[in-house]
Design brief:
This protein is of the alpha/beta class. The chain has a single domain, classed as Aldolase class I (TIM Barrel). Helices cover 23% and strands 23% of the residues. It has six helices and nine strands. A nine-stranded mixed β-sheet has the order 3-1-2-4-5-6-7-8-9. The radius of gyration is 19 Å and the shape is globular. It starts with 17 loop residues before the first strand and ends in an 8-residue tail after the last helix.
Length: 230
């Protein structure tokens, strides 16, 4: 409590106005329920996880620090119906939250690709959150923030990347235990590229009647699997 007659100086809340950006480019969405739709990707630098199957380690470091207004301008200039924030892990950067809000204000359908380790509760309600629940073979499944499930709804999607039969069995248990099919709009299942046969996973899902959507990483079949910026 301040003394009578004295003015209290309030410190203004400063909205983060810069982001470290690895790349911005337009392509087609390669995964999720939006697969095949033209999309602008804003790939932010940095990730605090080290998944065994990571296919974007180039985004761990480097990048360019840019004004958020300039990132917004460049993303809108691409003129695609979708804009996705990805990484790395975009939620490591505080400026990602206002950027997603501004993209939604501009009329874009906004997607967020996140590892599931960061708190998603502050993400604008208009954003489609695509949350990766890390499977045991990732080496990072102990980092899952299970509290995030309480904040997800029908606009959101949960992704499982499978590297083994054990991963598949773990996924089935998690879907059942947490009633995930009732929580989100889509459950997505894919394979670690080149490590697990898609036909085997599809056969397991059909046999067990798993309430999920199988997907391939479309961009890895259109272009070379290691291609960047596509």
């Amino acid at each position: 409590m301040s003394a009578p007659g004295k003015h209290v100086r309030l410190t203004p809340i400063r909205v983060p106005d810069t982001l470290v950006v690895h790349e911005i480019y337009a392509s087609v969405q390669g995964e999720s329920s939006f697969a095949g739709v033209p999309c602008t990707f804003v790939r932010l630098t940095g990730c605090n996880l080290r998944c065994t199957y990571c296919d974007t380690p180039q985004a761990f470091f480097g990048g360019t620090r840019r004004q958020r207004a300039d990132v917004l301008r460049d993303a809108l200039t691409m003129d695609t119906p979708l804009v996705e924030l990805t990484g790395g892990e975009p939620l490591l950067q505080p400026g990602a939250l206002p950027l997603m809000r501004e993209l939604a204000d501009a009329g874009k359908t906004v997607l967020l690709e996140t590892s599931g380790e960061r708190d998603v509760s502050g993400v604008d309600a208009r954003v489609h959150r695509i949350v990766d629940l890390k499977t045991p073979s990732s080496g990072e499944h102990a980092r899952i923030r299970w509290e995030n499930l309480e904040h997800l709804g029908v606009r959101d999607e949960i992704k499982f990347v499978l590297g083994s039969r054990d991963d598949y069995q773990w996924m089935r248990s998690v879907i059942t235990e947490h009633r995930l099919a009732r929580r989100v709009g889509h459950l997505l299942v894919s394979c670690v590229f080149g490590s697990l046969a898609a036909k085997d996973v599809v056969a397991w899902m059909m046999e067990d009647k798993v309430p999920a959507r199988f997907q391939l990483q479309m961009h890895k079949y259109i272009w070379e699997p290691s291609a960047q910026g596509v």
